């Protein structure tokens, strides 16, 4: 049976999460499939940030560090994010960028792995996926150089064997982005963490494409370290602060090198020797960016609003319905145009995105779609990436996106030269 | 001759910079002497940040990285700050926090000093001032530990001799906050840089209490590295992003360890090996925090608005007039109450603040003043710190502050128990 747009509209009418879309400002007529790169503007954000500016900063001035709760804002918002990723209160803070937080946790993991009982001086290897997001690899490369170690890049499927092999004694850290940014493939956090621990290694998980996209239980998975991004599925705004989590059993056992004053046990004693705060607060560094953390809180609240409707599990069910639908429509309606679906077909392995690849013209096809109001993004060298965020996308949006894709391909419109002019960012 | 409040009002009427005050939202009746901790809200900031939220983010979404110039915003605002500190265009970027930027530059400086011709393995010592701001010392301590070096803390007056001594061969980095946060004393950047270079060391300058407060010429001083704060004299808002500058001759000669994707030569090629961008862009790390950088730009613009009125030189002249006036009024009207003026009496040595000390009650006196609408801050263990920012302070504000201080001291009001209850900040 062929699916019609009316069928999709019927699915939307039956969608118990449909009202969540009203939380966002979304430009009229746009099908926004890039929330995995930059989440849209929550309706509450402008007023909240305006309040922080005019009342808390403008009127309260320096006193707002106490009276408006600025000092503990990274913890307060951290506690909210913790609910989305299966961490406990007080275990997670908002701080810096994903890249900076990666530096903190990979460094701490290297230190702990080296100091573990039975660890030899050879335990300095960071294992990661060849196709991990570049910033993860760059930071790991930098730390491997500083610690006299090595970054070893493998295909995802080869990682378990590498950990299980006799050579496993040299692996200090397994560093993975839980959901691959390009393909949307999900790593098995439980199994890989177990394998890493068996090899004497610690795990660092980048949750950039997980937090707010999939249900997760960091505690149950016995993960060691995690970082995540505030501006994708958490809708915190462009360049929003990131977050960092450390397993409570480990958090006080390592220093992190970005030993700024806000991570000190007593920042306002102004004493010269560094003494890290107890708990996750030691992963703070400089003065928290209040406007940005306040905006992030509004974004996180858009996800917490789903808690009464089934929370992340319900969002995940809808996300899978949307990605399944898009893959089906691409197969049914865009066949014969050289597209390959590179995201996993199996639900349990697929994040909240569907990535396509094409030998030629991937960039131009994305540009032609954007002109038609369907915003995905291009990921070099050949990937068309479409994110499906169940908070605000409808089944008809999926239908419209596939239909525009079909028209771009069938018309050959993407061959027009203007779609081939590269910009810095997609 | 005794100065009266009317004399101060006359000085204000003759002040060619008086109109600059209109750039700020300042609560009615408040004398705000804490702009050296958190600058006040510029009138333009709420509308500009609202525009970034509702138009650039809300309407433009991911496309604003190109169309709204987000990708180059850290450079654009950096170029504006460069004009305030004597750096050239393209030499300075906005990024991360002061603490994180300190980590980048001290690390790069250690690396360069060690690799310099004639440098031995012993050249690993970081020299700093004992009373430097703690985050500078914590970051230096952390890097000294990682690099197998040592942080050596001296009294300010002992630094030149330490650099000149035969032991100078072991000093890799001289790390100083140009204007001491507690006393407001200015280090002689030219002389100390020369002495450091003669000793084979590189200089790192923290401009937290310099940028927007004093004229400065980083290029002429032949400084090597500098970082600075966005939320003090630059009025960028609570926890505003910081900035980082490297002498052009050095910038491509070292990597900095926070090798995030935005500092890569080609971030959107998504290639696995790290290749730093040319120039100061390699000191970027994660995705720039757009709302916060936009707010910072409004703050920086309040200083650039003085350029037609004489710029930093004119602001400095007024700042000195204000601090001289406050010191005089404290001497004349608050004598006999155990206050000591700890900021230098000599203009050329004094930043844009006057710090007082008292053996007992410094915290409580600051609290009593805040209740009376005169906002300074307490700096442990015994300092009452008052910042005088010529952009928005009037001579009558100085007079009123000194008068309230006199009343608090003469009445003994500060002895009331409520003024002794410690809060986390200020």
What this model shows, in words?
The structure is a homodimer of 426-residue chains. With 426 residues, chain A is of the alpha/beta class. The first copy, chain A, has 2 domains: 5-42 and 311-420, Aspartate Aminotransferase, domain 1 (Alpha-Beta Complex); 69-304, 3-Layer(aba) Sandwich (Aspartate Aminotransferase, domain 2). Helix content of chain A is 38%, strand content 14%. The first copy, chain A, contains 14 helices and 15 strands. A 7-stranded mixed sheet of chain A has the order 4-10-9-8-7-5-6, with helices on both faces. A 4-stranded antiparallel sheet of chain A has the order 11-12-15-14. A two-stranded antiparallel ribbon of chain A has the order 1-3. In chain A, helix 9 links the parallel strand 8 (202-206) and strand 9. In chain A, helix 4 packs parallel to helix 11 (290-304), helix 5 (98-115) crosses helix 6 (134-146) and helix 12 runs parallel beside helix 14 (395-411). The longest helix of chain A is centred in the last third of the chain and has 23 residues, at 311-333. The mean pLDDT of chain A is 96. At the A-B interface, helix 2, helix 3, helix 5, helix 6 and helix 11 of A face helix 2, helix 3, helix 5, helix 6 and helix 11 of B.
């Amino acid at each position: 049976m062929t699916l019609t747009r009316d069928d999709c509209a019927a699915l939307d009418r039956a969608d118990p999460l449909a009202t969540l879309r009203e939380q966002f400002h979304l430009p009229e007529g746009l099908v926004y499939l890039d929330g995995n790169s930059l989440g849209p503007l929550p309706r509450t954000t402008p007023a909240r940030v305006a309040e922080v500016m005019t009342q808390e900063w403008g009127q309260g001035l320096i006193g707002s560090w106490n009276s408006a709760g600025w000092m503990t804002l990274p913890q307060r918002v951290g506690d909210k994010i913790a609910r989305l990723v299966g961490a406990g209160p007080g275990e997670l803070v908002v701080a810096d960028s994903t890249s900076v937080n990666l530096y903190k946790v990979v460094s701490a993991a290297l230190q702990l792995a080296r100091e573990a009982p039975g660890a030899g001086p050879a335990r300095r290897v960071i294992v990661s996926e060849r196709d991990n997001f570049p910033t993860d690899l760059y930071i790991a490369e930098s730390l491997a150089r500083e610690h006299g170690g090595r970054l070893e890049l493998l295909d995802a499927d080869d990682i378990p064997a590498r950990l299980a092999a006799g050579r496993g004694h040299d692996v200090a850290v397994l560093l993975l982005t839980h959901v691959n940014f390009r393909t949307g493939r999900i790593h098995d956090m439980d199994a890989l963490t177990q394998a890493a621990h068996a090899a004497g290694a610690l795990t660092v998980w980048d949750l950039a494409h997980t937090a707010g996209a999939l249900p997760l239980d960091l505690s149950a998975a016995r993960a060691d370290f995690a970082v995540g991004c505030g501006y994708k599925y958490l809708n915190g705004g462009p360049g929003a602060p990131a977050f960092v989590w450390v397993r409570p059993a480990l958090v006080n056992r390592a220093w992190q090198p970005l030993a700024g004053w806000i991570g000190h046990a007593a920042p306002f004693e102004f004493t010269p020797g560094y003494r890290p705060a107890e708990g996750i607060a030691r992963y703070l560094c400089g003065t928290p960016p209040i406007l940005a953390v306040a905006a992030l809180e509004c974004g996180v609240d858009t996800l917490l609003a789903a808690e009464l409707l089934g929370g992340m599990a319900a969002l995940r069910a809808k996300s899978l319905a949307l990605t399944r639908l898009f893959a089906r429509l691409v197969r049914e309606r865009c066949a014969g145009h050289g597209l390959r679906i590179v995201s996993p077909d199996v639900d349990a392995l697929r994040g909240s995105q569907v990535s396509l690849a094409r030998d030629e013209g991937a960039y131009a096809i994305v540009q032609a779609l954007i002109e038609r109001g369907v915003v995905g993004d291009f990921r070099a060298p050949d990937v068309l990436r479409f994110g499906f965020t169940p908070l605000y996308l409808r089944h008809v949006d999926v239908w419209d996106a596939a239909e525009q894709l079909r028209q771009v391909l069938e018309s050959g419109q993407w061959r027009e030269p203007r779609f081939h002019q590269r910009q810095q960012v997609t």
